Amino acid sequence: VSTAVAFVTRLLRAAGGVGEEQLRCFRECLQEAMREHYKHHWFPLVPSKGSGYRCIRINHKMDPLIGKAAGMIGLSHERLFQLLPSELTLWVDPFEVSYRIGEDGSICVLYESPQPGGKAAKQLESRTSCKEEWRIGRSSPSKSYNMMTVSS
């Protein structure tokens, strides 16, 4: 949860126009809202169970958890749509947090931990391609097309 909250907070910080005190309050409010929302929908023994319920989504509608936290610091839904990607999916599961910007974007892992009994958790901040995707504000990755010519 803290990785997902930190990610959304970094998106707001990168967009500019939101003060550090507001960002701190937003981070605390969003973390509390997510913990409360996920309380009965967190299954470490079956991590994929409830994943749809835990999905944070912005797609022409603001996710209610983000909207609630933003409202606590005086940000309207309209302002949030200006500051955050217009299409964002954030999956918050036990042992993994990942996101996608745009409907055709790559899925990027922010946090990954082996299930119980494995090594310590790690943040996956070094994935430059995914990190840069949201920094430069691209809604989806560029597509490359290979041309094939046929001669008769």
From TrEMBL:
PANTHER family: ANTI-PROLIFERATIVE PROTEIN DOMAIN-CONTAINING PROTEIN, B-CELL TRANSLOCATION GENE
Annotated Pfam families: BTG
PROSITE patterns: BTG_2
GO CC aspect terms: cytoplasm; nucleus
Protein name: BTG1 protein
Database matches in InterPro entries: Anti_prolifrtn, BTG, BTG-like_sf
Domain spans labelled Anti-proliferative protein: 84-103
GO biological process: negative regulation of cell population proliferation
Organism: Rhagologus leucostigma
Assigned protein family: Belongs to the BTG family.
